[in-house]
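ok so for the tutorial part 2 we go from a plain amino acid sequence to predicted structure tokens. step 1 is just haveing the sequence, like this:
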Amino acid sequence: MEAHSDRIIVRTYKGFRQVEIAHISHILCEDYLCTLHLINMSPITCAKSLRHFEQALAPYPFVRIHHNAMVNLDCVAEVKCKGRQRHAVMTDGTALPISVRKWPAFRDALRILIYTAQNGILTGKTDSLTKNIDTPAIHKGQRL
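step 2 — the prediction. this is what the tokens look like for a chain of 144 residues:
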């Protein structure tokens, strides 16, 4: 997989596919297969580990929220909290669990993204991904 101007090339079982990074909503992994869920497009399955995508997408607003899930912070519509259980609800309505161990990193990354978007501080590769971010809703009085 290579990155070219905010795009990645993913090898699928049918061949290669070029994907805009901003179109990736979240990535789910099951065994050795990762499924890239795209905004308004069909998902793509490839034989790469989630760690591989975590490293490749490090400059972008992607955060690992579970041992088998990674999300694009720009696609998080809200965070639902009930006790210690937390879920990231994506813009397409998919609710993904956030593990207790991954919650602090997710919360901090979301805080930074919200702060930079609200204060007009846009730097690096996240410029094109954070221009029109809405602040996610927090339920049950949960603070970020």
